[in-house]
UniProtKB/TrEMBL annotation:
Limits of the Interleukin-17 receptor C/E N-terminal domain: 22-184
The protein's name in its UniProt record: Interleukin 17 receptor E-like protein
Domain of life: Eukaryota
Any coiled-coil regions, as ranges: none
Keywords: Receptor, Signal
InterPro entries named in the record: IL-17_rcpt-like, IL-17_rcpt_C/E_N
Entry GO MF terms: interleukin-17 receptor activity
Species name: Mustela putorius furo
Database matches in Pfam families: IL17_R_N
Membrane-spanning intervals of the chain: none
Length: 184
């Protein structure tokens, strides 16, 4: 968030806030102008750059910018949507996108799918499930949780349905995690 404003003798600072539209969590940052420097620099233009708002993949934000004190209810605001893992740069550079990908092998003779869960140091636990693909992916059994301290990162999922409609879904054990899907 960048702002440019002309200093006024009663201006004490500038505040930028972001609200996560999904969780309503608010993060604010402010820059203060000391009274002495504010009086000496009345009429000067102040450039402010706020650059440390933490966001997640595919998050929708509402960003506001206002003066301190808040003059006459005036504030600048803008809605912003963070790209998801399908965006080329995000998919290549954000760990949750490339770390969430799993690999699998279908053993049709034993009617089992072996899923290799990614090993990412410090990452949360990971869920894997089988689902039937219609309009959405409907559960077929209970999701399997793969803990970070587990020796083997391979999960065996037996199946009885036909493979063309059967899919795998994998995701990190975090709120609103991006789910990766593959249909053998």
């Amino acid at each position: 968030v960048q702002a440019s404003l002309v200093l006024h003798e009663s201006l004490r600072g500038l505040e930028a806030c972001s609200v996560n539209l999904d969780t309503q969590e608010t993060q604010c940052q402010s820059v203060r102008v000391s009274r002495a420097s504010g009086r000496r620099q009345v009429g000067w233009q102040l450039q402010v750059h706020f650059d440390c708002f933490e966001v997640t993949v595919a998050q929708s934000l509402y960003v506001t910018l206002r003066t301190v004190p808040h003059f006459c209810g005036v504030q600048l605001d803008q809605q912003y949507h963070v790209e998801d893992c399908r965006h080329e740069d995000v998919g290549r550079n954000v760990p949750v996108c490339f770390a969430g990908k799993f690999s699998y092998w279908a053993d049709r003779s034993r009617k089992v799918i072996l899923v290799q869960v990614p090993e990412v140091p410090g990452a949360p636990d990971y869920y894997v499930r089988l689902c039937l693909k219609w309009f959405t992916c409907n559960d077929v059994g209970v999701p399997v949780r793969v803990t970070g301290n587990r020796m083997s990162r391979t999960v065996s999922l037996p199946y009885s349905q036909e493979l063309p409609c059967l899919c795998l879904e994998g995701w990190f054990a975090t709120p609103d995690a991006v789910r990766m899907q593959a249909c053998p």
